């Protein structure tokens, strides 16, 4: 394995090597761009007819920005040579989900309606990562406007799972998860409204963090469900997740919902033992409806934590399964309002049709051509539950249930430091396996309530039991703004299972060349 291949698995080690001038930032960026060109060359924006949408194309990376990235890397190297103190991610290349705006390249949110859209500004997370020295190298594929659990609802074709290309990578941040799992970049950013970071992290065998609502600025994240959306990292390790988390977190005047809360020094507490911590296992999470391998992986995690000295407590969260119906009212309601801005006039695509009798006809034609079927379904659902006749019956009621879900978590966290369960009921499923939207929505049963309650959650790879062919994710949740405990508990599992961790065959093959 070359030194760079090895370093690419750890943002922290790579940064250290760059700061010590063992490798240059330019080498690191070139290495990632070469790997992307070799393994997953972007097919351009015309996904359906592009040369790279053949049946086996990974399609995780939609676009790279080589020139800008190399220029930024040269600047990092020059600053280090000039003796400036390198930032905590100096020279580390990363990929960005296509619904987070960057001044490099285009941002499409996986939608034709934003085809070719260039942002005049950077999202706050991008500004912060640049300040930390990290380097944007491109954009990753996602479900259109982050609506989906498989990265199949995408105008530029589906993304495939690097563990098994006949399967989905999960979604909606499937491109970002697949890219890290395939070793295309040391880390990437995703967004999580109901599970879109944690579920693809589970399906691709990497670490995925959804920070507490309000912890990370949403400025520059294309809005889906504004009271639920959060940006977070995909990484190979818990430590790297903590490094990226610290770099992107903290209050931001550009996002009035960002919390005025200081960012904890998570790294300092990371290796503290879990002895004496109480980990709750909600009865509802260990359902017989889960895949047997998923339940076995969670049982194994429970015994690992027990052997590390944590106390395992049974917990009751009876509202677990109403989370889905609550989420699928609140998220579409907010989406229908957020997506009203795509009218074919102010942003992106306008219908090329002629002879419209009114501006309304132009709006309708542009939106009908620009939005895919899932987005149209959500807009209809959302406008329905917000309409005068149904507001009380659906939307207002969902808000009440939201409060009850939050209260249920509060009660659990008065007894436990964290909650443990599966990230998703099954491992990655085959492409095309869930044509019915309702069966797709069921993927989110264990993740949506984290967003509904605004708390934090992380998915970490389970130990590989008996050479399982597909990865399984362990889901940990902690109370709001308690990411330091979340990382610490996640790290203990990771440290205890390091030897039993496999990486995607794609990452191994290339790394072992
Ligand atoms: N799968 C969920 C949905 O389709 C969650 C998406 C997300 O977290 N962005 O709404």
Topology:
Layout: H1 3-7, H2 11-19, H3 25-39, E1 61-64, H4 66-81, E2 93-97, H5 124-131, E3 135-140, H6 174-181, E4 187-192, H7 198-204, E5 207-210, E6 230-235, H8 238-248, H9 266-269, E7 278-282, H10 292-307, E8 311-315, H11 322-338, H12 359-370, H13 373-386, H14 391-413, E9 418-422, H15 437-441, H16 448-453, E10 456-461, E11 473-478, H17 483-497, H18 505-511
Parallel strand pairs: 2-3, 2-4, 7-8, 7-9
Antiparallel strand pairs: 1-3, 4-6, 5-6, 5-10, 9-11, 10-11
Helix pairs in contact: 3-4, 6-7, 8-17, 11-13, 11-14
Glutamine binds next to strand 4.
Bound molecules: glutamine
The number of distinct helices, counting runs of at least 4 residues, comes to 18
Structural category is: alpha/beta
How many strand segments? 11
Radius of gyration: 22 Å
| Major β-sheet annotation | 11 strands, mixed
Report the β-strand fraction as a percent range: 5-15%
Low-confidence stretches: 44-55
Distance between the termini: 6 Å
How would the global form be characterised?
globular
Major β-sheet strand ordering: 1-3-2-4-6-5-10-11-9-7-8
* Nearest-integer average pLDDT: 93
The H-and-E topology, N to C, reads as HHHEHEHEHEHEEHHEHEHHHHEHHEEHH
Fraction of residues in helix: 25-40%
């Amino acid at each position: 394995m070359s030194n760079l291949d090895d370093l690419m698995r750890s943002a922290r080690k790579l940064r250290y090597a760059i700061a010590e001038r063992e490798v240059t930032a330019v080498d690191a960026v070139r290495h990632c761009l070469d790997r992307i060109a070799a393994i997953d060359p972007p097919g351009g924006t015309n996904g359906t007819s592009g040369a790279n949408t053949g049946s086996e194309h990974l399609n995780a990376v939609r676009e790279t920005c080589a020139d800008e990235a190399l220029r930024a890397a040269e600047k990092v190297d020059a600053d280090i040579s000039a003796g400036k103190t390198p930032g905590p991610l100096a020279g580390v290349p990363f990929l960005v989900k296509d619904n987070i705006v960057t001044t490099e390249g285009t941002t499409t949110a996986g939608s034709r309606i934003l085809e070719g859209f260039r942002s005049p500004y950077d999202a706050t997370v991008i500004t912060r990562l640049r300040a930390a020295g990290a380097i944007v190298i491109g954009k990753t594929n996602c479900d259109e406007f982050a609506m989906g659990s498989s990265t199949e609802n995408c105008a530029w074709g589906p993304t495939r799972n690097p563990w098994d290309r006949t399967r989905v990578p999960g979604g909606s941040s499937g491109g970002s998860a697949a890219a890290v799992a395939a070793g295309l970049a040391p880390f990437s950013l995703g967004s999580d409204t109901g599970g879109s970071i944690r579920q693809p992290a589970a399906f691709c065998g990497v670490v995925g963090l959804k920070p507490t609502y309000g912890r990370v600025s949403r400025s520059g994240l294309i809005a889906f469900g504004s009271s639920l959306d959060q940006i977070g990292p995909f990484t190979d390790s818990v430590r790297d997740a903590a490094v990226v988390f610290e770099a992107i977190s903290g209050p931001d005047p550009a996002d009035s919902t960002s919390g005025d809360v200081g960012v904890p020094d998570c790294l300092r507490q990371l290796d503290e033992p879990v002895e004496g911590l109480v980990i709750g296992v909600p009865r509802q999470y260990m359902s017989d409806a889960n895949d047997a391998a998923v339940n076995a992986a969670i049982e194994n995690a429970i015994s690992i934590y027990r052997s590390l000295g944590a106390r395992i407590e049974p917990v009751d969260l009876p509202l677990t399964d109403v989370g889905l119906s609550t989420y699928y009212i609140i998220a579409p309601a907010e989406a229908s309002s957020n997506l009203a801005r795509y009218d074919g006039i102010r942003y992106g695509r306008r219908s090329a049709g002629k002879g419209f009798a009114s501006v309304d006809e132009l709006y309708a034609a542009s939106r009908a051509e620009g939005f895919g079927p899932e987005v149209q379904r959500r807009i209809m659902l959302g406008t329905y539950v917000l309409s005068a006749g149904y507001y009380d019956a659906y939307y207002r009621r969902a808000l009440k249930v939201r409060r009850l879900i939050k209260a249920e978590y509060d009660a659990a966290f008065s007894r436990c430091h964290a909650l443990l369960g599966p990230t998703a009921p099954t491992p990655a499923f085959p492409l095309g396996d869930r044509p019915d939207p309702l069966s797709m929505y069921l993927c989110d049963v264990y993740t949506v309530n984290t967003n509904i309650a605004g708390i934090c959650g992380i998915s970490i790879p389970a130990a590989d039991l008996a050479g399982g062919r597909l990865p399984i994710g362990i889901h940990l949740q902690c109370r709001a703004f308690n990411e330091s405990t979340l990382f610490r508990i996640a790290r203990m599992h990771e440290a205890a299972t390091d030897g039993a961790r496999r990486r995607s065959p794609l990452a191994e093959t290339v790394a072992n060349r």
